[in-house]
Amino acid sequence: MKVFQMQCKTEIIRVLRNRYFVFWSLVMPILFYYIFTNVVNKNAPDLAEWQAHYLMSMTVFSVMGSSMMTLGIRMVQERSQGWSTFIRITPLSDGVYFAAQMVGQSVIHAFSITIIFIAGALINDVSLTAAEWVMSGAWILLGSLPFLAIGTLVGMMKKVETAAGVSNVLYMVLAITGGLWMPLEIMPKMMQAIGKWLPSYNFGNGAWEIVRGNMPDWKNILVLIAYLVLFMLLSKYIRRKQEAV
Amino acid sequence: MNAILTLTNVTKSFQHKTAVNNVSFSIGQGEVVAILGPNGAGKTTTISMILGLLKPTAGEIRLFNLEPHEKQVREKIGTMLQEVSVMTGLKVREILQLIRSYYPKPLDLEELINLTGLTEQDLKTRAEKLSGGQKRRLSFALALAGNPELIIFDEPTVGMDITSRNRFWHTVRALTEQGKTIIFSTHYLQEADDAADRIFLFKDGSIVADGTPQQIKARISKQSVSFIVDPELSLEKLYLHSEIDDIYRKDNRVYVQSTNTDRVLELIFQEKIGARDIQIERGKLEEAFEQLTGNDKEAI
Ligand SMILES: Nc1ncnc2c1ncn2[C@@H]1O[C@H](COP(=O)(O)OP(=O)(O)OP(=O)(O)O)[C@@H](O)[C@H]1O
Ligand SMILES: [Mg+2]
């Protein structure tokens, strides 16, 4: 237990010290939020709803990014630099190591969510009911699981450069096509049809529904679970193939 | 003696290459073993198998009577790998605390710092900002963090300055006095000669010699007596004695080869050839190393 706590604490410290994390997961989403709600689109028909909607978009954007990139790239780094080899010689079990990474990552996400929510409340006076704040926060925390699974897939790549490149592109594509930057409604029909089946849209939509006073759609939950299962199976398959060599 | 580590007919083949070929040995508690051999002889591969990082293609490895990958084994071993690596984003002190927490009976942090010569400044530095030699020191500290019974070092002193190197061997001696078992590989033969009480000489994946440094040196049995003498003087007289195998001149000195150097000394004085600055040349580890690991055409 002591080992687990120590490991979690370490993971959290390391993420917070990572400048890329602070920039991409905290500074950028808040900056975008300010620009898109106060400079670009300040005459939306229902301003309060738009401000709450976009706050969710940016929080989802932030958590999705750190799920896919922080974890994955670090895994590649530790492996290519030989640190994982050293860890394998210590008594630390793989299970504890993996669990600590997941828990540490989730604590980081809870932290990002809180910071961005507070920023939204301060910048635009976004006011939701206590239940809505808590529910949307919890949704974003849980909905990040399929993206953490993508992170472990990224973590299986051989080179840091490939991992960073691939995850960055995937991140941006998923964010745009999932309607996190611009609402899906203003995109071409074709894009909308595809977007509705992407994990990023379903991740975002749950939170958007909550701030409109609704519950996340069943379809959102099912699609995310399906992606989670898919990515986990894929990562299991790849790991087995890599071990066989 | 209690065997801590046993290898039985261990072989490791990669796709096109047999890196370790049918190696067997057994190491008892408290032994200090040096693994020597030219580049690519199979030292790192053997060490990796002992550490459970590679699976042998054939044969068996037992540590403390268990398989290498078992947790009880890992709690009792510490290691410095050939490729040193550190965890980024953490200060040295934080890494040490983290790794210590993995072990049931870790070494005291203060003691760890004293043993390895990490400075107060090092402890506050982020691991990725350490110099190569400082990283080695950290890596040494990590190897000792769990207070291991068996310590394995793969070329530990590469990149260390003289002070660090002396300190390293000083600490290793202190550890041996505590009854720790130590296995290390090195390309510095003097280190093996000084620190080890047993040497394995690897060549092409096999052990070609296993013994104390003295035994290994004796294997070349090319002892000689050397001295300076008037170059005009004929050494004809010495040749007449059957105990003398060979006589040659090198660098202004005369070398007289024989298995019995005492007898050579007697003869030198008996024949009154006026030899000065007489030295007995024992076989050096370098010579043994070259002879035993040299190309096959030399050996024939
Ligand atoms: N993963 C691998 N795949 C294929 N061949 C390998 C692999 N690892 C090692 N070898 C080969 O096995 C042989 C032994 O390598 P090893 O690293 O054990 O040598 P070493 O004695 O440690 O050498 P050095 O003194 O250079 O460290 C070499 O010929 C090397 O090319
Ligand atoms: Mg090696």
Rounded mean pLDDT of chain A is 90
Shape of chain B: elongated
Bound small molecules, which ones? adenosine-5'-triphosphate, magnesium ion
Query: How many structural domains does the protein architecture of chain B include?
Result: 2
Low-confidence stretches of chain A: none
Q: Based on helices, strands and strand pairing, what is the structural class of chain B? A: alpha/beta
The chain-level structural class of chain A is: mainly alpha
> What Rg of chain A is obtained from the alpha carbons, in whole angstroms?
18 Å
Broad CATH class of the largest domain in chain B: Alpha Beta
How much helix is in the residues of chain A? over 70%
CATH architecture of the largest domain in chain B: 3-Layer(aba) Sandwich
* Gap between N and C termini of chain A: 34 Å
Strand residue percentage of chain A? under 5%
- Distance, first to last CA of chain B: 38 Å
Radius of gyration of chain B: 24 Å
Taken in chain order, the helices and strands of chain B follow as: EEEHEHEHHHHEHEHEEHEHEEHEHH
Number of domains of chain A: 1
